[in-house]
């Protein structure tokens, strides 16, 4: 009992003036997390509000680094939603039903990893995140990506778009992603990979596609490094042929196309 009281006194002392600077009012008072159902750790830098029944983002503040608000009922993100979280690096918005995402809600100069899986998205909301290197928008209803949708995300290294409704590789949207290393397009409706499907992506080494229905044109395979042993889709035998296509059987492994840097 006495020990518990002593501990309580210590934590009160720690939460005294100064310590809470930059935190939201509730946290600054040392009393609770920003919203009911959330748990906070590491001095309020990590907040998890997973499946907490939230209808909106909890109050954000500048010392927040990791925020998980997945599995809630967040349907709208207002303008400048992330502005108060100037140090936010990881944001998990998965499994919300995002219906209204305003043009400046996903703007952040700090966010490095963003998850928007299972959000019912038919369009990728505009993202302006110069530090973003990991973006996951899996299990949505994207049928395409508009040309400029990722042009403000030039640091992107990993892009996961599996299980959407894409009928072709979103070539124009990918064109600015010169640092992209891994692209997952599996589980879409892409049935053909041609020489022009992929823009020049100098850093790309892993491309995942669903092999069952895919027709790969020999030229594009060669661009991906198919002339080397172990290239894409079991292609063997040189890259001289122009415009030849091969249907890839179910047994073939096209889903991990490795492009080697020479
Ligand atoms: C979301 O709202 C619906 C009804 O409005 C409710 O049934 C459901 O439990 C809510 N989900 C969460 C995760 O709070
Ligand atoms: C994001 O949230 C989803 C749903 O709760 C969860 O499955 C996933 O593991 C989370 N991702 C990370 C990196 O925490």
Task: Write a short abstract of this structure.
This protein has 262 residues and is of the alpha/beta class.
List the helices and strands and how they pair.
Blueprint: H1 2-14, H2 25-28, E1 39-41, E2 46-48, E3 66-68, E4 76-77, E5 90-92, E6 100-101, E7 113-115, E8 134-136, E9 158-160, H3 171-174, E10 182-184, E11 192-193, E12 206-208, E13 215-217, H4 218-223, E14 245-247, E15 257-258
Parallel strand pairs: 2-3, 3-5, 4-6, 5-7, 7-8, 8-9, 9-10, 10-12, 11-13
Antiparallel strand pairs: 1-2, 12-15, 13-14
The structure holds 2-acetamido-2-deoxy-beta-D-glucopyranose (2 copies).
Describe this protein's structure.
The chain has 262 residues and is an alpha/beta fold. Among the domains are: 36-100, Alpha-Beta Horseshoe (Leucine-rich repeat, LRR (right-handed beta-alpha superhelix)), CATH 3.80.10; 121-224, Ribonuclease Inhibitor (Leucine-rich repeat, LRR (right-handed beta-alpha superhelix)), CATH 3.80.10.10. Helices cover 10% and strands 16% of the residues. Strands 1-2-3-5-7-8-9-10-12-15 form a 10-stranded mixed sheet, with no helix packed on it. The protein has a 3-stranded mixed sheet with strand order 11-13-14. A two-stranded parallel sheet has the order 4-6. The site of one 2-acetamido-2-deoxy-beta-D-glucopyranose (NAG) has 8 residues, from loops. It holds the Pfam family LRR_8. Residues 233-262 are annotated as: Disordered. Keywords: Leucine-rich repeat, Repeat, Signal.
